[in-house]
Amino acid sequence: MAGSYYFVIVGHSDNPIFEMEFAPTNKEAKKEDHRHLNQFIAHAALDLVDEHMWKTNSMYLKSVDKFNQWFVSAFVTASHMRFVMVHDMKNEEGIKNFFMEMYETYIKYSMNPFYKLNAPIKSPAFERKAQFYGKKYLIC
Amino acid sequence: MAQCKLTPHEFIQNAFSPMVSVMCSPSVDQTCQKNNLSFIEMIQPFCKINTEAHFRDPSGNTVTIRNLRITMLDVNSRPPQPTLARKFLNESVSLASSDRTSALQIGNSAVDIPASVPWFEAWRETFLQVQFPSDHEFTKHYLSCILVVSSVESSPADVLIQMNQQLQQLQNVTPAKLPKWFSPNVLRYYVLLHDAQEGGLEKAECAFENIKNTYGAANCYFLQMNSRPPGQVDDQTHLPDPWSQFLIRHLDGQEGSDHDSSPRTPAEVGGLTGLPMPSRLATEGSCDSDISPKETELAQEAGEGTPSGAITVTRHPLSPSADSEVPGSFGPTSERTSHMTDTVGLPPGHINSNVWAGQGTCIGGSQAAHGACLTAADLDRLRTLVQDFCIKALLPHVERQVQQLSDAVSNKKGVSRSLLSATKRWFGSNKPGMPNVNTPTNAMIYASDASELQLRRLGDLCFMFGHYALAFQAYHSAKRDFSADQAWLYYAGALEMAALSAFMQGEPTRKAQEYMEESIVTYLNSCKMPQFATRATLLSTECLKGRGLYGEAAQQFIRMTSEDSDLRSALLLEQAAYCFLKAARPCMARKYAFHAVLAGHRFSKAGQRRHALRCYRQAYQVYENKSWSLAEDHIHFTIGRQAANLKLMAESVKAFARLLSPLSRQTAAQQAAFLREYVSIQQQQVSEEPLTDGSIPELPLPIVEQNSVRVLVGPLPCSTSVTPVVGSNSPTVPASGVTFEDDDPDTAKWPKLEEMLITAAQKQLPMIFKPTIQMFSNYTDNSRNPVSIVGEPVSVQVKLVNPLQVSLPLHDLQLLWSMRPTALISADGSAAAPVTPSTQGTVEAQVLPSLLLPADSCQPVVLSLTPRSSGELHILGITYSLSVPATDASGPGASVCGRQLFHVHSRARPQKGRKEPLPDKRLQVQVVPTAPCLQVNFVGQSSDMLCGEVQQVVMEFRNIGSAPLSTLHVASSAPELFVFEGEQVGSAVNGIVHIPLTKLAGKQLGVGQVHKTTFWVRAPDVPMEATLDLLFYYENVVNSAVPRYRLVRHQWILNASAGLQLTASALPSCNSHQAVTRSSTRLLNLPLQAKNLNQVQDSIMTEVSLVQILLASTEWQLSQQAVLPKGVQLQAQEKMYFLLQASRLEDKALVAGKENISHLWLTENSELQPVLIKSPYLDFFDRYVHRKGCGDAASEPSVEQGCGEGTNEPGLVDLCLLVQWQASVVIGQGARRSAVGQTCILVRHAGVPASWPPAIPQTGSMQALSPSWPLSSFGVETTPALPASGNTGERFPALEALQKLVIFTISHPPRVMHDFKSSRLCVVPVQLLLQNCSQQQLLVKINTLSNSNMQPANKSQLYSPHSSAAFRWVGLAKAWLELPGHASATVALAAALGSPGTFDMGAHLEVWCCEPGAPAANAVSQSWRVESALIVSSMS
Fold it and tell me: What is the rounded distance in angstroms from the CA atom of residue B288 to the CA atom of residue B938?
C-alpha cells in the first residue's frame, strides 16, 4: 500500500511557494482533515532542516524530523530553497528521486525571467510535472 | 520569560518534603474554628523553618539542613479521589493566569510569551499533592504524627491516651491502608492547645506538666492561642494574610452542583473546539464520546489503580477521531463507584458552589476572617512549635532512624541476595520494558519490612533531609537489587531518586540523566503507571532546564503527552514549546509555534479556553504573514471559537473575518461553514455589545473594489420615463445620455464637442476650459466636486467582488451618506454637524432589496441617492446585510447588517512641485437647489438603415428640471449625416446647429414645456456601423447660476447595410445632324448603371425601385431623350442600365457657380414627386457635393484647379447624378418596411467611368471615407483620392484629357454617283465640323495628309470587305484655326476618289490642338475618330 505524501517548496522567508499532496486514490476520504496538519508539520520541521543542512554536503537531507507517524524528509537546493516532504511511509529512494526531478523542474522554472524568486509558483505545467513525478516515484 | 518561581533545587526539595500527620481532638478543631481555620490550615504557613538544623549521619559527619520544610496533613486526610483530583487540577490551571508578557525577537518577527507560567506551577504542585502514596517509595509516608489536644477537655491526658490508641489502630491495619507510615515506630509529638479566651491557664499548665511527664519534655509542646479578645480586630488588617496563599486550593469537596449548572465544565467544552461540519478542521469531540477518555484520565492522574487498556496509541494530536476510538479503558467499576462515597468523608473545606466562578469570590469571602483571634505572639508560638518539633524531636528521630537503617542494610548485605533473586538474575531478563517476558510487570511485591526496601527507606530519609550523597548510594544499591528481582516499579523509583540525588548533590552526570530516562521509560512502558512517569518527567525536566539542556527537556515533555489526559498534555506541550524557544541552538521558533498550537488544541479539549486562546494567539505570531493558509485558517478558526466562548466578541469576529480571506484555499463547503459561523458570531456581537456610536460593523465581504467606485450625477437614461407620442407607433428613444459604461478614458470627442459648443453659444471660449464631467471615475479629473441638483439622482457604481466559492446573498443594499445642508454651511462655516441618515429625510436612498453575488465573481452594482435639499452630500460607503447562503432545507439563513466604507484615491499624478496627490472629491457631491434639466427624446429613430437611406426623426425636448432653459444648441461630429428642418444650407458645416426656440415665449423652454423639431438622418454610403454623436447644450436663463450650462449626450449607432451602387461615365457625343442644324449644342451621353448591392446571404432582403434621376451641374441639363425602363425592381445583385443624355445649356442660361438641377421621373407614382425635389434631399445632396469638393481639395491640388476655375482643365465635365429610390426591406420573418433614400455619384471627367460607393470597399479606404469619423471636418484627417477621379497627381493635364479637347465630325453625302468614264476623279465636298469641348481657346490644326499607316486599322477590319482608304484629300490639306471655348467651326474639305467603292472618310484626317501661343510641337493629336462611310457608285 502506498502512503500519502505532502510536498512543499518553502521560500526564504518560510513561505510556501508550491504545495502538492499525493495520496493513493483509495483513501481520499480522510485526507481533507489533515491538510492543515501537513502544513503545521512541514513548517515545524523547518527548524530541523535549517539545522541539518549545515551538517552534510548533499542536498538530500533524508528524514529530518518525525511527528507521530509522519516523517519529514527534506532537500535543500543551492539557492537554499527548501523542499519538504511529509510522508507516512519510508520511501527514501523514491523521495530522493522525486526531489531530484523536482529540483530540475524548479531550476528550469526559475530561469524564467518573469518569475520572481520566492513568489508562489502558479503554473499548470509545473503542477503537471510535479503530479507526474509524484505518480512515478511516490505513489507507485 | 516563562520562568518558574522556584529554582530546580527548591522545587525538588519541596516536592520531597517530609510528611507529618496531625491528629486533633474535636475540641481543638472548635478552638481553631474561631479563627475560621482548621489546625492544619493554621499551622501551614509556619511549616518551614528558617534556621539551620543539623543531624549526624551514620559515619558521624554533621549534615546541615537549610530551609527545611515539612508538610503537615490531617491524619484522616486522603488524597482526593480521581474526580475531585481532576477538578483540582483543572482549577489550578484555570485560576492561574498571567497577563504580563515579554517580547522575544526571533529573526524578523517578535514573539510575545508570558513572563511567567503560574498555571503550570500551580498544576504541578497540585499534581504532586493529589498523588496517592505508593508502596514502592517512602517519601510520601508519614514520618511522624502530632497529636493535639485542647485544654478545654476535662482530662487532656486521657484524651491523648485514646488518640494514641487510635493511632496504633491506624498503623496496624492489615492490609495496610491509607494513611501510610514510614516505619512502624513513627515519632509521636504531643501538643496541648490552650485557648486564652477560655481562661483556666493554670489548669492547662498543670495538665501540660502531666503530659510532659508522661511523654518526655522534648516531645511535648504547650501552645497558647486566641490571645486576642473577640471584637478587637483592628490592627492586623494591614499585615499580609499569611494563610491566603495556602487556602486557595482548599476548595470544594462537594460534587454535583456544578456539572449541571455551570456551562463551563470540561465535559461540555469538548465539543466546542471542533469546526462545524462537513470537514472538521479542529478535532471534534462530541459530548458523548468524551466521557470514556475523561474517566481514564481521572483514574490515572490520581494514581489509583492502573487502567489496563489505556495504552497510549500513537495518534495524531489534532486528529479528529482520537477521542471516540479509545475504548472504555477505565479502572474497575467498583473503584469508580466508590468515588462518591469517599468524597463524603473528606475534611470539610471551604465550600464554593461553583469552582469555576473565578478566584475572586472564594478568596475575597473568606479572607477577612482568617486568624481573627491570633495576636503576633500567637503566631510566634506557632512558629516555635514547628521549630521545636523539628529540632528537638524530628531530627533526633531521623538521626536514629538513619543509623538504624544503615546498620540493618549493612548487616543484611550478604543475606539480601536471596536464592530466589539469584536464580531470577540468571534466568530472567535483566532489562525492563521487555513485553515478552512472562513475568507480570508489577508482579514483584515486597513486604513492607522486606530488606530490599530498607535501602530504599534509607535513601528516602536521607534525601528528604538533604543528605544527598548517602541517598545516592542507597538508591544506587537498591536499584541493583530491584533490577535483579525484576521489580520494575521499585527499580524505576530507585532510578528516579538516584538521578535526583545526583542532581541535588550538584554533580549531575551523563549517567544520572540516563537513569532518569530509563526510569521514565520503565514507569511508562513496563509499569504502565503514567502518573509516576509524569512526576519523574516534571522533576527531570527541571533538572535538565537547570543545566540548560532545553532540547532534551522538550523531548521529555513531548513524550509525556498522550491521549489519556488533555490537560496534562496541554501543559507539557506548552512547556515543550517554551523549551524550544530557549534552546541553545538558534532558537526553534517554528517548533515552538507548532507545539503552542498543539498545546492550545489540548487546552481547548481540556476545557481551558483561556489558555487555549492564549496559546493559539502566541502561535499565530509565528505563522502570521507566511501564507501557510490552511494552518492559519485552523488558528483563526480556533481563536474565533475560543474567543466567542470567552465572550471576547470583537476578537472572535476579527478572527472569523480573517477566515474569509480571498486567499482561502478551503473547499466551498468549508467556506460556507466559515461564513455561517462568521455571520452568527457577528450577530451575537451586535446583539451583545453594540458599537458605542450606534453604527454598524464593517464586514469583510464582499470586497469593494475601491478604485472602481464611479459617481454619476444627473438622471440615468434608463430611469427617465418614456412617454410614447400619441398616434404614432414609431418608437420613442430617449437620449442615450451618460452611463457607467461610457468609461473609455481616451475619448476626447465629447470634450471637443463641448468646447465647440461653448465657443459657438457663448461667442467666446472661457479662459480655462474644463469639460463638464458627469461620470466621475478613476480616470477623470476628480479635483472638483461633482455638482448635482436637488431632486436629481446621484448614482454610484461599485464593483463587489466575492472571492469565495460560495455565493453571497446580500440584502437591502444602499449607500451610506452624510449631508450638510446649505443653511448650516452658510451659518457657521463648516463646523456644522453633518446630518446622518437617521435624522432627516433630506436624502432619499435607493434600496436594492436583494442581490446574489455568485461564487468567485465581480459584479458591478449601481445605487443611487436623491438629495431633497441643497448642501454637501458625502457618500461614505454602502450598507447591506450579509446572509448565509440558504441551504436546501433551512430556508433563509441568518444575516448580519454591516457596512463598508469607500476609500478612493485619485490616480491622477500630482502636479509638479506638489508631493501629496490631489484630493479625490468624487464622493463629495455639491447639491445645488435649481437647474433646468433637458430631456431629449427621439421619435422614429431606428438603427438599421440602408446605405443612403433618409429617415425623418422628430426630436422632442422636454424641460424636466426646475428652471427654464434657453440657447439650445446641438453639436455633432458627423454633420453630414443629418439635416434639420428649416436649416440654412451650409450652416452646419462646423457641426453645430442652433435650434431656435422662437415659437416659445421668451425664447426659452419653461419648466415642463415641450418643444419639437424635425430632422432627417441619412445613412452613410458605405456599409458600416456609423456612430452619430449628438451633444445638446443648453443654458440656464439666469446667467450666474451654477451650473451655467448643461449638456445632454446622445449616441446613435447607425447600422448601414448595403444599398445601391451607381456607376456612370460621361461620353461626349456628336450628332452630325444636330451639329449642322444647331451648331452650338453639345451633348453628353451618360450611361448609368445601378446595382442593388444587397447580397443574397444578407440578413435583410431589399428590393429597390428607382424613382427619379437628377442631374446637378452648372452647365448640363438632362435631355428628355433617354432610355428609361420604368417600374423595374432591382432584386439582390441585380443591375439596371440607363442611357441618359445631357445637353449643354445655352450660354446665356449659364450663371457662374449656380447649379442647375434637372430631373427625370422613373415612376408613375406621382405622390412622392412633390416631396423628393425639396428639402431635405437636396440638402443632403449639397452636403455630399460640398464634402466631395472639400475632401478632394484637401488632397488633390490638380483637381483643385479644376474645381475652382473649371476652365483650366480640359475634359472636365463635373456633373453630379443623383438617384432617388424606394426600397422595400424584408427584415427576417416577413416583416418589411419601406425606405426612401438617395445615392449620388459625381462624374468629373468625360470618358472616365465613376462608381459610388466603391465596388470593393477596402478596410482602409472605408475607414478613411467614413462620414462619421470624428472631427474629420476640421481637415485633420486626410481623405484619399476617389478611385475614378483620373488621378495623375501631376501639375500637367493628363494626355488622355488633352486628346479629347476637340471633337469633330464630317458631313458628306452618303452616296455619290459618278461617271468615272467622263472624269477619272470624283471629288466629293466634305464639311468638317469642329467642336471645342473645353472652355479654353484652342489652336486647332487640321491635317489631311497623314500617313494612313498611322491610323489604327483595326476598326476597319470589322467591315468586310474593308472600306477603303484609297483616296486623297484635295484642296485644303492643312489648316490652322483658332477655336474659342465651346465654339464650333466648319471647315470645307474635299476628297478625291479614283474608283467606285466604299470609302472610310475618317482616314487620313487628323486634328491637333494646342494652346494658343504654344509652340507647334506641343500640339496634341485628338483621339476622336470619325467613322463615316461614303459609297461611290459608277454611273454606267
Answer: 75
| Contact in structure between B814 and B848 (CB atoms under 8 Å) | yes
By the 10 Å C-beta count (0-12 exposed, 13-18 middle, 19+ buried), B465 is classed as: buried
Whole-angstrom CA distances from B322 to B161, B313, B1269 are 57, 9, 76
Q: What is the pLDDT of residue A103?
A: 92
- The rounded mean pLDDT for chain B is 71
**Residues B11, B62 contacting (CB under 8 angstroms):** no
* Predicted structure pTM score: 0.68
Alpha helices in B1266-1363 (DSSP H): 1295-1298
Residue B1382 CA to residue A134 CA, distance in Å, equals: 96
Q: Cβ of B320 and A33 within 8 Å?
A: yes
How far is residue B961's CA from residue B1007's CA, in Å, rounded to a whole number? 6
Q: Does A40 touch chain B (CB under 8 A)?
A: yes
Are B592 and B583 in contact by the 8 Å Cβ rule? The answer is: no
Task: Record the cell numbers describing residue B322, joined without a space.
Answer: 482520537
DSSP, collapsed to helix, strand or coil, labels residue B673 as helix
pLDDT in tens, B961-977: 888 888 888 888 777 77
Cβ neighbors of B1058 (< 8 A, separation 6 or more) are: B946, B947, B1023, B1093, B1094, B1095, B1098
**Set of chain B residues whose Cβ sits within 8 Å of the Cβ of A35:** 630
Residue B1374 contacts residue B1301 (beta carbons within 8 Å)? no
Dist CA B1029 CA B754 (whole Å) = 12
DSSP-derived secondary structure for B558-598: HHT--TT-HHHHHHHHHHHHHHHHH-SSSP-HHHHHHHHHH
Q: Do you find a cis peptide bond into B347, omega within 30 degrees of 0?
A: no
Task: For chain B, say whether A37 makes contact (Cβ under 8 Å).
Answer: yes
pLDDT band at B1175; cut points 50, 70, 90:
low
Say what the pLDDT of residue B1071 is: 55
**Secondary structure percentages of chain A, helix, strand, coil, to 5:** 45, 25, 35
Q: Which three cell numbers stand for residue B462?
A: 536521607
For the segment B463-473, what is each residue's pLDDT rounded down to a tens digit?
888 888 888 88
DSSP secondary structure string for all residues of B260-308: HH-TT-HHHHGGGSSPPSSS-SS----TGGGHHHHHHHHHHHTT-S--S
- In whole angstroms, give the CA distance from residue B655 to residue B639: 6
Q: Which residue has 477521542 as its cell numbers? A: B323
Residue B1252 CA, chain-centre distance (Å), reads 56
- Find chain A residues with C-beta within 8 A of B631's C-beta: 36, 39-40, 43
Looking from the CA of B122 toward its CB, the CA atoms found within 13 Å total 22
Structural Rg of chain B based on CA atoms: 59
Counting DSSP H helices and E strands in chain A, the numbers are: 3, 5
B142-150 and B187-195 strand pairing: parallel
Categorize the per-residue pLDDT at B456 as very low, low, confident or very high, splitting at 50, 70 and 90: confident
Interface test with A, best of B273, B279, B318, B594 (most A CBs within 10 A): B594
Using the Cβ of A15 and the Cβ atoms of chain B, whether some distance falls under 8 Å is answered with yes
DSSP helix/strand/coil, B1213: strand
Asked if B1090 contacts B1064 with a C-beta cutoff of 8 angstroms, the reply is no
Could you report the per-residue pLDDT of B1205-1214, keeping only the tens digit for each?
Answer: 334 455 666 7
**Is pLDDT of A53 > 80?**
yes
Confidence of residue B1265 (pLDDT cuts 50, 70, 90): very low
Q: Please give the helix or strand (H or E) that residue B1051 lies within, else none.
A: strand B1045-1057
B1374: closest CA among B1351, B1406, B1326, B1399? B1406
